Amino acid sequence: RAVEARGIPTMVMGSAFDILSSCWPPRTSFVNYPLGHQTGMAFDPTDQYRLVEAALDGLVLLNKPGQVNVLECDWGNTMDLNETIGGREVVLRRDTVMKYQCQESLDLAVARHGEAEGGGIVSEEAIRQRE
């Protein structure tokens, strides 16, 4: 936010929609690729250029915090993400429901941004980890 306050626009590219939409960065581009591949497929400069260019377009398109530019992308069937990439966060299918670590975080988001934009659920995984 300090960079934005100095008049320099910023863009976050990410592939964890629930996190991107709940942390309210100034500008966000969502890439539905496996974690770690937000700027495109490895060794595919055409895909990388296309995604970065589309994300940079968001510097003009997105004008208020919390907006998420969902970029058109298709990882294809080169691999089954749920079986071949490690990590529990990938095994769990992604959705667009915002998930919070605790009820207090959810309550703060709703108080600050309203139910429609700040609402969501407390993550079952976060609850399980605290037990």
What does the model show?
The protein has 8 helices and 5 strands. The protein has 2 domains: 91 residues, no CATH class; 35 residues, no CATH class. The relative contact order is 0.15. The longest helix is centred in the middle third of the chain and has 17 residues. Helix 3 links the parallel strand 2 and strand 3. By secondary structure, it is mainly α. About 11% of the residues have low confidence. It is globular and about 45 Å long.
In short:
The chain has 131 residues and is mainly α. 44% of the residues lie in helices and 10% in strands. The chain folds into two domains: 2-92, no CATH class; 97-131, no CATH class.
- Oligomeric status of the shown chains? single chain
Fraction in helix: 40-55%
Biggest sheet overview: 3 strands, parallel
Q: In whole angstroms, how far apart are the ends?
A: 35 Å
The averaged pLDDT comes out at 78
**Which of globular, elongated, flat, extended, rod-shaped describes the shape?**
globular
Broad structural category: mainly alpha
Low-confidence stretches: 79-92
Query: What's the number of extended β-strand segments?
Result: 5
Radius of gyration: 16 Å
Q: Please, how many helices?
A: 8
Q: How many domains in all?
A: 2
Q: How are the strands ordered across the major sheet?
A: 1-2-3
